[in-house]
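Appendix B, example 12.
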Amino acid sequence: MAFVIVAICIVILVILLTWGKMNAFLAFLLVSMIGGAWLGLPLPRIPGALQKGIGDTVGGLLSILALGAMLGKLVAESGAARQIAQVLVGFFGPKHVQWALMVAGFIIGIPLYYGVGFVLMVPLIFSVIYRYKLPAVATGLPALAALSVTHGFLPPHPSPVALVGAFGADMGKTLLYGLAVAIPAIVVAGPLFAVFLRRIPAGESALFRATGTESADAPMPGKAASFLTALLPVLLLMAGAAAQHFFPGVSWLQFAADPAIVMLFCIFTATVTLGTMQGRDMAAIMRICGDAVKDIAPVLLVIAGSGALKQVLTETGVSERIAGTMQLWPVPPLVLGWMMAAIIRACVGSATIAGLTAAGMLAPLVKAGLVEPNLMVLSVGAGSLMFSHVNDAGFWMFREYFSLSIKSTLLSWSVMETLVGVAGLAGVLILNSIL
């Protein structure tokens, strides 16, 4: 009966988000209260459960997500993202421009949030398309596939960071495993799949023309500063994970490898390399950081709302009961996590909501030691990217920028996202068999 109640609560959540157009944070709180009362949690305890869930979930993530947003904003506003893309296109040459755009999307996508990276990449994609007279969809999709994968798999993006906290995983290991899974997934869903998209027609939309006139001639930071600053979080988190593996128990290494400390150091570095060295004063740099905090606020509220629902499921004991039941299912836990996230993603449209909602029910399985936490983060992340369609903002952004029909968008964008999700699961299962 508990499983049925939780399923009904998720259906209510989906209806509120899709048909009701309700704010995700409000929808999570309402469903959490309904679920708590229905599952037998005494009414006076429900407010405390909501507060504890929000505090426990956001408390450990706030600094990482806010600092990550600041870094991404600095990379975008300074022109470093544009510098990275132009260097890679020049390096690979016109014959391999798809691969250049894919690598550019991957590097830019590590520090930047998905929507920002999307808007930054599209003008570059179209400039390359017009310069070399290339098919738009086949040329641009690999870069957007790379952006999608970084959004779903790699810290410091909100969903992977939140899943690391929910499953008690290790940020550095998740990043290492995530890179191993992400790169093949991008290749499959990007350049290899794009071969079949050369005949899909696309045109320059009014939305692109409005965006494509951004400061293309504005000064940019140097190549080394751009690449180093954008990749610094990845390099430091990987180095920290390796150092702790070979030198466990060293206190200063544990401090230096903490993700929040890493991100703080990256912000200080970016303030110099992309700020003061480019002639910006500290007040202007801090304004950029302040704007980044405003941008991340809606994502933080979604994560907070998912934490409230998770806490209600925990305090009613239903998470443990569901986990106990799922242990008897003839489905491996990693596949189960992927399936749950994929179903919610198809219903809701948001990868972040899909991953965090699934995590609330899967956490007891991970805590029981039935699956490797870092791989569960990636499995749920892969599922949360599955089949983007008409209820996903990314679907409509792609359609409008490339001026496609609904059918062409489904055949290109939706299939690409599905390939990312399937290839991601395959990579996770292969890693699981090796580790």
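The chain has one domain: 62-152+175-295+331-351+361-434. Residues 256 and 262 are 7 Å apart (CA to CA).
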